[in-house]
């Protein structure tokens, strides 16, 4: 998979691309992630990418020219163009599964007051990572890229994400490590028993109990289901 991210703050992605699972996924060629500075596409002599919005109001607005040129330069036949916006569809695990099967994504990050409305015509999909407003789309694009890349076959053990929260409309079961007894809080005996069938049953029951208590909405509408 290839992911092209358009931003006016490329430096924000340094840690993201050079740490842990994302770093390994890039090194092992499961994904190719390229960060593109929108300014490089500006035809303005001063490389300007934003201006005041017509009609007045606060903040700067990203201009269409550099973003149209960037998308037209990077887009291929199988590309999905995704706009980061709090006005988009709320991002869910099911979408991460679907997007992990795509060949090529272009993610567009807005900033300041946002982007010129005409930029919307470039997008196949508009995504919001939740009902709150960030200063820019950079963190949103990292959230989306991270959640997709870990689902690409081979990036992590399939077992480790099959039981993740939101699969089968459930939250994940509780997990424990050493020590067996920490400040009087003990690891459930069944997990130390070595009895695989009982462990499986315990985990299924605990996942269901946890979901009923914390997120009954998942059991009712199942819209997070991966
Ligand atoms: C300050 S926000 C602009 C918000 C815009 N004025 C509005 O209310 O819809 C700047 C940029 O951050 C990104 N952004 C902010 N919140 C987001 C969210 N919840 N999900 C995805 N992107 C977001 C978008 O790219 C947006 O263009």
Task: Characterize the structure shown.
This protein has nine helices and ten strands. The chain has two domains: 2-149, SPOUT methyltransferase, trefoil knot domain (Alpha/beta knot, 3-Layer(aba) Sandwich); 163-221, Trp Operon Repressor, Chain A. The chain is of the alpha/beta class and 226 residues long. The protein has helices at residues 14-17, 20-27, 64-74, 93-99, 138-149, 158-162, 189-192, 196-214, 216-221; strands at 2-7, 32-37, 50-52, 60-62, 79-90, 104-108, 114-115, 125-128, 181-182, 185-186. The radius of gyration is 21 Å and the shape is elongated. A hairpin with a 2-residue loop joins strand 9 and strand 10 (185-186). It has a five-stranded parallel sheet. The protein has a three-stranded mixed sheet with strand order 3-4-7, with no helix packed on it. Strands 9-10 form a two-stranded antiparallel ribbon. The protein starts with a strand and ends in a 5-residue tail after the last helix. The chain is 34% helix and 20% strand.
Estimated structural class: alpha/beta
Unreliable stretches covering 5 or more consecutive residues: none
What is the number of E strands? 10
> What string gives the helices and strands in order?
EHHEEEHEHEEEHHEEHHH
Report how far the terminal alpha carbons are from each other: 19 Å
Q: Work out the strand percent.
A: 15-25%
What shape does the CA trace take?
A: elongated
Q: For this structure, what is the CATH class of the largest domain?
A: Alpha Beta
How much helicity do the residues have? 25-40%
Query: What small molecules are bound in this structure?
Result: S-adenosylmethionine
Using the CA coordinates, give the radius of gyration. Answer: 21 Å
> So, CATH architecture of the largest domain?
3-Layer(aba) Sandwich
Mean pLDDT: 96
Structurally, the number of domains stands at 2
**Total helical segments:** 9
Largest sheet: 5 strands, parallel
């Amino acid at each position: 998979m290839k992911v092209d991210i358009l931003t006016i703050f490329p430096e924000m992605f340094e840690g993201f691309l050079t740490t842990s699972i994302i770093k390994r996924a890039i090194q092992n060629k499961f994904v190719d992630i390229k960060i593109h500075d929108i300014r490089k596409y500006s035809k303005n002599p001063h490389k300007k990418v934003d201006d005041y919005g017509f009609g007045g109001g606060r903040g700067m607005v990203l201009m269409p020219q550099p973003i149209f040129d960037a998308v037209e330069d990077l887009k291929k036949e199988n590309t999905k163009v995704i706009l980061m916006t709090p006005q988009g569809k709320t991002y869910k695990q099911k979408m991460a599964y679907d997007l992990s099967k795509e060949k090529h994504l272009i993610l567009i990050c807005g900033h300041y007051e946002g982007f010129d409305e005409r930029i919307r015509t470039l997008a196949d999909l508009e995504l919001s990572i939740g009902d709150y407003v960030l200063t820019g789309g950079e963190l949103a694009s990292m959230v989306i890229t991270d959640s997709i890349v870990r689902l690409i076959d081979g990036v992590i053990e399939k077992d480790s994400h099959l039981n993740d929260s939101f699969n089968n409309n459930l939250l994940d079961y509780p997990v424990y490590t050493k020590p067996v007894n920490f400040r009087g809080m003990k690891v459930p005996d069944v997990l130390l028993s070595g009895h695989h069938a009982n462990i499986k049953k315990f985990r299924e029951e605990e996942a269901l109990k946890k979901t009923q208590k914390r997120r009954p909405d998942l059991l009712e509408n199942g819209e997070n289901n991966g």
